[in-house]
Amino acid sequence: SSQLSSLPLQILLYVNGIYYVFYFLATLAMIIYKSQVFSYPDDLLAPDLAVLFLMAILEVPRLYLGFKGNLTEAEAPLGLSLGLTVGSVVLCVYLLLWQTYVLWADVLLNALLLSAYGLESGLKVTAIAAFVS
After folding, report:
1. DSSP conformation class of 124
2. If we measure between CA atoms, which residue out of 100, 97, 77 comes closest to residue 89?
3. Which of 43, 60, 74, 111 is the most buried (most CB within 10 A)?
4. Cβ partners under 8 Å of residue 110, min gap 6
């Protein structure tokens, strides 16, 4: 019996989990900074924070299902993780393009996260294809 789980995917999931903690804290700090320094409209602060916290809530099952699906060589959890990645990408794009104030640091953090999501998605599709065949 051959091992079909993907080591690069497993490493990327691990690194992405660590990066996301940094991303969350940095983005939260920047939202707080922007609300203090700029004239941040009160009715727009809550949606920006809600998107960040919703993204954090999505990240936990996304990573768990990715780890589980890859290690058990099961396509269903990996597919669910891939679906949750799509939701995370949409929220990341919101924070990149449509939040109230976008700083260069926001662009850098979100571009790096989107790149990781893209690479991770490609590896997930490849792993699912290996598991099915």
Report:
1. H
2. 97
3. 74
4. 92, 93, 95, 96
- What would the pLDDT profile of 82-109 be if each residue is shown by its tens digit? 999 999 999 999 999 999 999 999 999 9
Ordered by start, the domain boundaries in the chain are 7-132
Look at residue 128 and give its three-state secondary structure. helix
Cβ contact 21:59 at 8 Å: no
Give just the sign of the alpha carbon dihedral 81, 87, 91, 92.
positive
pTM, 2 dp: 0.95
Contacts of 54 (CB under 8 A, 6+ apart): 91
